[in-house]
């Protein structure tokens, strides 16, 4: 593998930590980006010197650029994201809506903009955008999140057109339900409620499953680009319908 250095966002836990570990095992030096420095240091203690903690808010692209000055990033994994609430758009605050867009769409686009010039100059690189099945299917209460992930998905399609012939590959991975703490904020920090509601009746994916899929795409010869991957539990199929009663109008 020609790739030597990776940048993984949201790397302190869950899917990001699993991807960071998998890339270290592949021999890459991984710059692990997250806000929680102590969690990153614990990860580095477990994975060794090729794991480089990078404490920053993924939305602060200027600070990240300064910290990465001179680092030739070969692999970018846009994993960081967030879901403030699971409720209809008209019940969200303006701040919650803006936060979801900035985390799930604006920040990854800024990360791509940051690393692409170097990748194109070196003639090699691989960008991974982790979106969601919510980008293409309807899940109640996820209007802003689904829109942001769909925007990132479309951005990837356009980028693949723009990057054709540069040696830079781009892969979208859209996971279904993965057992992590991703929904903790939306469940008001109630871990037991989260587990009972989402992870007990069906078998969810684990973070390592997503990491294994990513590494499989990365290992392919550089003339092969797996453009889009949808990865779901065997017991999950997105879809459904709703037929509520007609509204009662005031006279």
From TrEMBL:
<keyword id="KW-0560">Oxidoreductase</keyword>
<dbReference type="InterPro" id="IPR036291">
    <property type="entry name" value="NAD(P)-bd_dom_sf"/>
</dbReference>
<dbReference type="InterPro" id="IPR002347">
    <property type="entry name" value="SDR_fam"/>
</dbReference>
<comment type="similarity">
    <text>Belongs to the short-chain dehydrogenases/reductases (SDR) family.</text>
</comment>
<protein>
    <submittedName>
        <fullName>SDR family oxidoreductase</fullName>
    </submittedName>
</protein>
<dbReference type="Pfam" id="PF00106">
    <property type="entry name" value="adh_short"/>
</dbReference>
């Amino acid at each position: 593998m020609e790739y030597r250095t990776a940048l993984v966002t949201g790397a302190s836990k869950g899917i990001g930590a699993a991807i960071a570990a998998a890339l270290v095992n592949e021999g890459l030096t991984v710059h692990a980006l997250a806000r929680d420095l102590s969690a990153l240091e614990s990860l580095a203690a477990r994975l060794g010197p090729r794991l480089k903690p990078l404490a920053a808010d993924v939305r602060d692209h200027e600070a990240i650029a300064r910290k990465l000055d001179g680092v030739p990033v070969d692999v970018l994994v846009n994993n960081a994201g967030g879901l403030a609430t699971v409720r209809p758009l008209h019940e969200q605050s303006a701040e919650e809506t803006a936060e979801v867009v900035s985390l799930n769409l604006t920040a990854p686009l800024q990360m791509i903009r940051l690393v692409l010039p170097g990748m194109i100059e070196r003639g090699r690189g691989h960008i991974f955008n982790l979106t969601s099945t919510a980008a293409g299917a309807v899940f109640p209460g996820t209007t802003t999140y689904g829109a942001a992930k769909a925007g990132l998905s479309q951005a990837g399609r356009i980028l693949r057109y723009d990057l054709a012939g540069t040696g830079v590959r781009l892969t979208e991975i859209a996971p279904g339900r993965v057992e992590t703490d991703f929904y903790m904020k939306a469940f008001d920090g109630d871990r037991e409620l989260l587990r009972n509601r989402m992870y007990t009746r069906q078998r969810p994916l684990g973070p390592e499953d997503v990491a294994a899929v990513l590494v499989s795409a990365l290992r392919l010869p550089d003339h092969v680009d797996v453009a889009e991957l949808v990865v779901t539990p065997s017991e999950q199929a997105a879809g459904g319908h709703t037929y509520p009663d007609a509204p009662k109008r005031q006279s």
